[in-house]
Amino acid sequence: MLRQFFLYLSRSKKAQRLLLSAPGAQRAARQFIAGETLAQAVAVVRGLEARGMLATLDHLGENVTSLEQAAAARDEYLEVLREIVRSKLPATISVKLSQLGMDLSRDKSDDDCRRNLRALVECAQQIGDFVEVDMEGSAYTDRTLHIITDLHQSFSAVGAVIQAYLYRSENDVKELIRHGVSIRLCKGAYNEPSTLAIPHKTEVDVNFLRLMRMLVESRLYHRIATHDPSIVEATRRTAGELGLSKDSFEFQMLYGVNRALQQQLVEDGYRLRIYVPFGRAWFPYFMRRLAERPANAWFALRSVLR
Ligand code: FDA
After folding, report:
1. At what angle are helices 201-218 and 169-178 packed, to 10 degrees?
2. Catalytic (active site) residue 3
């Protein structure tokens, strides 16, 4: 119930205006967001690096409303890539196709969005970096995977995200592996109908484990994105049983979530990449984090009231 409420808020412009004016809202969001500027994000990545962790930078902003905004988002990401080179940051970038204009293409061929993503992937490939394309709601799944597999034929520096809650994901994993595309596997964070997504958490977890095994068996470099200790443990076990070295895959976690487990993985010699969001448009991202864990909502409320 509370989950649906926060997911509703994440899409509501009115709620956004109201909550952004609350004095402590930004303070509450800082648990999960590096800050509003690239400089603040760089400082966070440096701190993670000192603790032996990698990063992926998400310049927040989704569902832009004009192609000019989409082009501006692309340019901001190009600046992030330049900063990664300049400051030698151990970081990739994570982008959302709705931010690069997926909803705005004039002819439904997604040409503008493709061009924007291509510019980022081309740049990443040149500098030896990588673009992780986040997965949004199910309305975007087909088009997102299509664009990625197309682009991947020319550039290896682009990867996809698969959500374990979608019934379709097993087929998508097979198809991506067939194309040699690196996958970030997560549970899924959007509000989906039960016709498309597994409604019960325990069954999502079972599907996650099944998909994780497919990734490990593929021997491609993949990214296991979860804070769930039992899934982390199962991944470690499966990789060990199949003789995978610790550097042939990575775990990923969100900035500010389950720091004890993050530290433990690094101490045990695993590669861990932290998803570091930054930027002024932090509201929908913050609401999705609250939706995942109602306990966070009480923490946030306390910060707002303080
Ligand atoms: P689960 O929700 O079952 O949580 C397991 C445990 O982790 C909890 O018991 C709690 O201890 C801790 N935890 C989880 N979330 C927490 C939170 N918000 N605050 C505090 N503790 C928390 N989704 C998507 O749809 N598209 C995408 O592209 C991505 N990308 C992505 C990248 C990375 C690096 C990560 C880690 C996650 C995503 N996600 C995502 C989000 C993902 O789908 C999912 O919603 C969250 O990771 C929460 O699911 P868990 O696997 O952590 O398990």
Report:
1. 10
2. no
Q: Which amino acid is at 224?
A: I
Cα separation of 3 and 183, whole Å? 26
Please tell me if the CB atom of residue 59 comes closer than 6 angstroms to any atom of ligand 1.
no
Taking the alpha carbons of 284, 129, 270, 219 in that order, is the dihedral positive or negative? positive
> Structure tokens of 187?
């549970």
By most ligand atoms within 8 Å of CB, the mutation choice from 95, 162, 228 for ligand 1 is 228
Output helix, strand, coil percentages for the chain, rounded to the nearest 5: 50, 15, 35
Please say whether the beta carbons of 38 and 45 come within 8 A. Answer: no
Most confident of 19-33, 51-65, 210-224: 210-224
Q: How confident is the model at residue 27 (pLDDT cuts 50, 70, 90)?
A: confident
Q: At the topology level of CATH, where does 47-218+228-246 sit?
A: TIM Barrel (3.20.20)
Is position 184 annotated as part of the catalytic site?
yes
Quickly list DSSP for 173-188.
Answer: HHHHHHTT--EEEE--
> Given a cut of 90, is residue 62 above it in pLDDT?
no
CB 155 within 8 A of CB 122: yes
Any ligand 1 atom below 6 A from CB of 228: yes
